[in-house]
Amino acid sequence: MPLQDFKIYMERCSRCSYCKWVPHMKMTERKFATICPSIAQYEFHGWSAGGRMVAGLSLLRGRIDYSDTLLDMIYQCQMDGGCDVSCKNQTDLEPLETMLELRAKCVRDGHVIRGHMPAIQSLRREDNMMQSPKAERGKWAEGLDVKDITKDRVQVLYHAGCRLSFDKELWNIARGTVSLLRDAGVDIGIMGKEEVCCGGRAYEWGYQEELARYAGRNAKAWEASGVKMVVTSCPHCYQTFNVLYDKIGMRVNVQVLHITQFLDFLIKENKLQLIKEVPMEVTYHDPCHLGRLAEPWIRWNGVEKKVMGQLIVQDPPKEFRRGANGVYDLPRDLLKSIPGLKLVEMPRIREYAWCCGAGGGVKEAYPEFALRTGLERMKEAETTGAEATVSACPWCQRNLLDVVKTMDTRMKVYDIVELVQQAL
Amino acid sequence: MALTKEAYRALEDIVGARYLTEEAAVLEGYCFVWGNEMFFGDRFSPRPHAVILPGSTEEVQAIVKLCNRYAIEYKAHASGFCSAALAGPKGFLSIELRRMNRILEIDEKNMFAVIEPCVTAGELLLEAMKKGLRSYSGSSPTSSIVASATSYIGLSSSQISAGYGGRNPLGVEWVLPDGEILRLGSLGTGAGWFTGDGPGPSLRGIMRGHTGPSGGLGVITKAAVKLVPWYGPAKMETKGKPPSYTVDVPENFRVFTLIFPSREKLYEAFGLINEEAIAFACSRRGPFTMVAGMTGSNKEAWEIWKEGYFQKKCANSLALIMDASSRREMDYKEKVLEKILERTEGEMFPENAHGQSARFVHALTGQGGVKGVFRATGSFSTGANADEALVAMLKANEMGYEVKQTFGKRGVVLDDDDPTWLTATEENTSGAHQEFAVRYDPLDPQSIKGAAEIEAILGKLWLEKNIDIASFAGAFGLLAYGGKIHEMAGPKCLDYHIWMRKIKNAFDPNCVSESSYYIKPEEETSPQK
Ligand SMILES: Cc1cc2nc3c(=O)[nH]c(=O)nc-3n(C[C@H](O)[C@H](O)[C@H](O)COP(=O)(O)OP(=O)(O)OC[C@H]3O[C@@H](n4cnc5c(N)ncnc54)[C@H](O)[C@@H]3O)c2cc1C
Ligand code: SF4
Ligand code: SF4
């Protein structure tokens, strides 16, 4: 949908600034009452969802032209969607979708962020966002002796995703996951160097065509292999496969689960038993792409009409995605089922969680901002008294690990699978 | 006209390059706000020359002095949630105070908080509740308490129990339009923040009067505001999912929707509730505002509205919230309420937990206003307001309702059946605050025009009938812009506009504090003279 179609939302933004705050009924601590990393860092209104609604409108109307400042304003934003939840708790607007389209317009008009180009070029040449040769994609699994779905038939495909495939420090997560699933009797395989990016991150940066390309390639590969299910450790991939492919009308006919969902299933089926004590107090960081952004896509093709003279309703009625239906409980249930482990919650959780800082192309183009945002999250985690922050996303993991290196803290950062492994 | 390079550099020296900008893309965010379409025919008003973000009183003072030196018009704002904060007929230096957001002190014993201008109502409430106190709610949880206490309107749904407007500020630190610092109330004699009056200069009337100078009289950099007892928990627990979060009404509170057989009976009950001082908050918002507040979307609101139930049952309804420090006090209040209902043939409307939660949260935090007024059509206006005796307001309501209905039935503005909003005031008298909310579509020129016409008609009517001109002349509504209203209302009200202008000129000799929502500085004779 072109940005033009979002004009109705931009023009109806009241500038209430709710998008800068956690929904008020969910605020518990003043220190952690804000939701938007962008305005927290850059201060001017433009660095908020409301500000970008104005910028988008302004651009469409020709009141302003592209400039470096405008591009920074648009891209110094994690696209984590916290603003969207807070705004839509009160309104029928679409700030996040508008911001996505604004980015797409920038790219279409040839105004791109220099800091994104290495990753985009890498995607175009090497099918990954990590600036690494595609031939090395399956290296993380060397020595695991796991089936290759391009050769063997398996029930379940493990999709590692770009981050886990190329970030050596995190390979243990992917390797551990595969071993754990195999031990639980899952007929699992990987695609090795044939695996390609989901296309989701590029889409979020405004490169919409990439999404369709990778949706097509993934669909073809999965269908050809005959897998019944795809499991991924990466919430970005999970969200892309389930939500974004559906959004662009390319939903794949294979069930896609995040690893936390699959582990929950295995535990319930008694295929996995968590028996060892892990005496630890941890806090859980909700990855945006597993939480509020993972809500199923709701297709709506309709028009606005007015009733009662001026009441704006949609015909046919439209259900808005307001962040309520992300994957919030399963990771928590999983942690709680680990013997000896105690879960304590941060002030900002679930649909109103503070972002880790890595999303939206920020880690690539504005690394300092990514670290500052992650630092705020780790400080929030520290207030819980927990020994460790647990996430379920390799991108969060990467950024939070980088943050911890800059801090004087004893707090550790784990992926949820690392703790599950300890409990087996 | 853009700032000269010299002036820009001088401003940069005060706050640092990071906190000053004149980039067009950034400035656009500072001239776009709801309501602008009523004044400018568009949500965009003229662009500011630059935006500056000071971090301290000293920086504000230096900026203001520099503006005097270079003849740069300026206006300060907090969250910038109204046209008066961001708009003017031409560009000016926009001073955003968001970096000044510290709660400096909560004096539990003397029940006040000392805060900087960008502490929001939501934030202060969070901190105060931990100490068994609460602030008045202001307009919404994202809005500045200092803005409403010192500079702009200052009403709140819980004002009957927590005070409003000029009754809330105590000691105040004020950077005058020329850059001098004035400390009001006890602060002025170094005696602390505890009172807005003496020992020390008691200039609340000049600082804000009834509705506030809307940024036209310098910058308030700190203020102490009253706190009152809070009988709920230190933290509220919220259940549910967006957009339908629900809080459990705490045990020391009761939330009622009361329904009456006629408007007269409603006004009678309202007066009695005020007089008997049993309310934490008491207001009438009308059936559509009720439905909008308790639903998660326009679609949901429309589904309920179509059934016609609320219009029928709650046409004459009041939301009443009561709090008590003890079981005995609550028993007493409940008995009083029973008697009032007997006398006024009132009943309790059975409302579900979600509806109760919506009323309670709105009274406590102001939350729900955005749902109530912006979600439906995209914008609203409230003109024709009054703080008056109930009997006068009943009449005003009848007159105004008819006008609004005419436009509503034509489909120009939302045909919402809502009568005036009515809010109990602190004095526990038979007076109240009343406003007409008109919801219109900011994308539809006919709708904007309709809302403006309603305001103009009601404004004229109010003047003819002498309905609370003093507050009508305040910061609200279409006529507030450009000070037009003062020329109309002043002659009917002791020529107050002449005094207001004298204040403006005396305090702002260089006319640099942007004043388009306050009063024009140049001398004009009253039309009567
Ligand atoms: C839905 C809705 C409901 C509302 N209900 C109410 C209500 O119940 N009660 C009420 O009082 N208002 C109400 N308002 C009006 C208004 O929006 C608020 O009063 C305003 O939002 C106050 O807070 P703010 O932080 O947004 O102030 P801003 O919008 O930033 O400023 C308000 C005015 O005060 C001036 N100002 C702000 N801070 C300072 C300062 N430190 N020094 C000098 N001047 C300053 C600004 O120039 C501007 O003219 C409502 C508005 C809306 C949209
Ligand atoms: S985007 Fe939504 S929450 Fe933000 S200012 Fe606009 S209407 Fe308010
Ligand atoms: S997506 Fe995140 S960073 Fe961007 S505007 Fe929304 S809350 Fe702020």
Keyphrases for this structure?
heterodimer, A: 424 residues, alpha/beta, Rossmann fold, four-stranded parallel sheet, B: 529 residues, alpha+beta, Uridine Diphospho-n-acetylenolpyruvylglucosamine Reductase, domain 3, Vanillyl-alcohol Oxidase, Chain A, domain 3, five-stranded antiparallel sheet, 22 helices, globular, disordered C terminus, binds flavin-adenine dinucleotide
- The strand order across the widest sheet of chain A is 1-3-2-4-5
Calculate the terminal CA-CA distance of chain B, rounded to whole Å.
36 Å
Biggest interface and residues each: A-B, 59 and 74 residues
Helix percent band of chain A: 40-55%
CATH topology of the domain at 244-481 in chain B: Vanillyl-alcohol Oxidase, Chain A, domain 3
Oligomer designation: heterodimer
Compressed to H and E, one letter per element, the order of chain A equals HHHHHHHEEHHEHHEHEHEEEHEHHEHEH
Q: Architecture of the largest domain in chain A in CATH?
A: 3-Layer(aba) Sandwich
Q: Please report which band the strand proportion of chain A falls in: under 5%, 5-15%, 15-25%, 25-35%, 35-45% or over 45%.
A: 5-15%
Task: Please name the CATH architecture of the domain at 244-481 in chain B.
Answer: 3-Layer(aba) Sandwich
Radius of gyration computed on alpha carbons of chain B: 23 Å
* Secondary-structure class of chain B: alpha+beta
Taking all Cα atoms into account, the compactness measure Rg of chain A is 21 Å
CATH class of the domain at 244-481 in chain B equals: Alpha Beta
Beta-strand fraction estimate of chain B: 15-25%
Largest sheet of chain A: 5 strands, parallel
Strand order of the largest sheet of chain B: 17-14-16-15-19-20-18
Let me know the number of strands of chain A.
11
